[in-house]
């Protein structure tokens, strides 16, 4: 809500020609336009209707003084809806050229006459810098990969580096962000290791499969994963409203021959379809597909399109290439044939044929020899992959010739993003600024 408001306002601001630092000494002044008061850089356009302006309500809402944001909890102490519509920002004259102080006419009830809102110039300019950064963010920074590309880029991180070196952890999380696939090696042969690995990111995602779960061949399996058969490319738990983002699989036993893991980048396939057959792309982004799990006293179901595009309400009118790009951004791909439920189509509806054609195209692309990255998980290795992007599969194995045992667990996207943001701010502040709006 906050950033949306911010952007809605910033949208009106023409780009500044110089970088953030060169604006440090800019003076600010308020102007009046009918009922509203505005704050604008004095170096900007003078036409209040067209120039860079900040609305009084917006400015009041942005106050971060100790009365408005609790210093301990960092929580906002008032509601945006508490701000009177007729509030007016009045610039207090002072000697400072590097900050602006505002006092308020018709402030929120209960605020003292002495309430002041101070914006250091770099905070005001920071919003310009953010805006400029956004304009530079013209392309999706996720790296599309096929087999050849992943053979070049594949990353193995030592368990010890993951655990004890924040740079190692950051490198791993960045790889997950850009490629959605990462391997750890020399992981201790303990059933607790996946939980220990996740503790570096945050809390794990519990599901009805348990906090962690075992992938072993079982008699009477309730899920095809728990057999020794070939398991085709899929994603996990798409029948849930919020499917897990990261999946971890730690190899504890790898004595049985076979059972190689296979990974494929769904974004690459989606791009190919977008660029070669837009009608099919449209079908896959519009037609909801049901995934369900009804078994063993559980009944989950959820419908979503194969290609899940980002909805950017409030940002849809952003002009320029970046706005166009933002509207076309794909957040997730949803593909899990073993858990697909029945479609409901009226007899003879041609949409089903269109879906069938598009689904064949997608399946052929992700399964093609050149697309798949195959890797046998040896004992002591752990794979981490983005379950909302990277498809995974497993070749059949022979359980009569030895045991195969993987320990698995999930992590939610929020948990992953939080850790990545904290580490990005620490080690790559410029990246943090760039990513603050649009790239998740
Ligand atoms: Zn305040």
TrEMBL record:
The keyword Transmembrane helix does not apply. CDD domains: CAS_like. Residues 17-27 have a biased composition (Low complexity). Residues 157-410 form the TauD/TfdA-like domain. It comes from the Eukaryota. Residues 16-45 are annotated as: Disordered. One of its GO terms (cellular component) is mitochondrion. Its cofactor is Fe(2+). Keywords: Dioxygenase, Iron, Metal-binding, Oxidoreductase. GO terms for molecular function: dioxygenase activity; metal ion binding. InterPro entries: AlphaKG_dependent_hydroxylases, GBBH-like_N_sf, TauD-like_sf, TauD/TfdA-like. This is Clavaminate synthase-like protein. PANTHER family: GAMMA-BUTYROBETAINE HYDROXYLASE-RELATED, OXIDOREDUCTASE AIM17-RELATED. It comes from Patellaria atrata CBS 101060.
């Amino acid at each position: 809500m906050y950033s949306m408001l911010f952007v809605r306002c910033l949208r009106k601001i023409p780009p500044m020609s110089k970088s953030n630092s060169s604006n440090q000494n800019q003076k600010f002044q308020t102007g009046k336009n009918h009922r509203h008061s505005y704050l604008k850089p004095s170096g900007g356009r003078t036409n209040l209707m067209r120039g860079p302006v900040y609305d009084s309500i917006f400015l009041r809402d942005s106050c971060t003084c100790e009365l408005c944001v609790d210093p301990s909890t960092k929580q906002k102490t008032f509601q945006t809806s508490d701000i009177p519509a007729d509030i007016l920002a009045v610039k207090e004259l002072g000697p400072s050229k590097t900050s602006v102080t505002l006092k308020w006419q018709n402030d929120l009830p209960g605020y003292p006459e002495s309430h002041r809102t101070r914006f250091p110039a770099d905070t005001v300019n920071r919003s310009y810098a953010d805006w400029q950064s956004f304009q530079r963010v013209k392309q999706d920074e996720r790296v599309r990969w096929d087999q050849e590309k992943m053979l070049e880029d594949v990353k193995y991180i030592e368990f010890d580096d993951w655990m004890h070196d924040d740079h190692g952890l950051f490198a791993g999380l960045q790889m997950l962000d850009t490629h959605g696939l990462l391997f750890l090696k020399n992981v201790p042969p303990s059933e607790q290791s996946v939980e220990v690995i996740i503790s570096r990111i945050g809390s794990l995602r519990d599901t009805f499969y348990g906090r962690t779960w075992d992938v072993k061949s079982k008699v009477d399996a309730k899920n095809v994963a728990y057999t020794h058969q070939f398991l085709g490319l899929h994603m996990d738990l798409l029948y849930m409203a919020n499917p897990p983002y990261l999946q971890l699989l730690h190899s504890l036993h790898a004595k049985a021959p076979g059972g190689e893991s296979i990974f494929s980048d769904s974004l690459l396939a989606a791009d190919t379809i977008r660029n070669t057959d837009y009608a099919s792309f449209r079908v896959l982004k519009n037609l909801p597909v049901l995934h369900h799990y009804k078994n063993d006293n559980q009944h989950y179901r959820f419908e979503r399109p194969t290609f899940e595009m980002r909805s950017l309400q409030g940002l849809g009118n952003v002009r320029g290439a970046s706005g166009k790009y933002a509207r076309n951004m794909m957040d997730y791909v949803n593909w899990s044939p073993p858990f697909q439920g029945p479609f409901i189509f009226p007899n003879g509806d041609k949409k089903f044929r269109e879906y069938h054609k598009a689904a064949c195209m997608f399946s052929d692309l992700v399964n093609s020899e050149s697309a798949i990255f195959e890797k046998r998980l040896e004992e002591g290795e752990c794979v981490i992959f983005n379950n909302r992007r990277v498809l995974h599969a497993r070749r059949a194995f022979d359980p009569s010739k030895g045991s195969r045992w993987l320990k698995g667990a999930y992590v939610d996207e929020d948990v992953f993003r939080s850790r990545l943001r904290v580490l990005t701010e620490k080690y790559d502040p410029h990246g943090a600024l760039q990513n603050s709006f649009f790239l998740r």
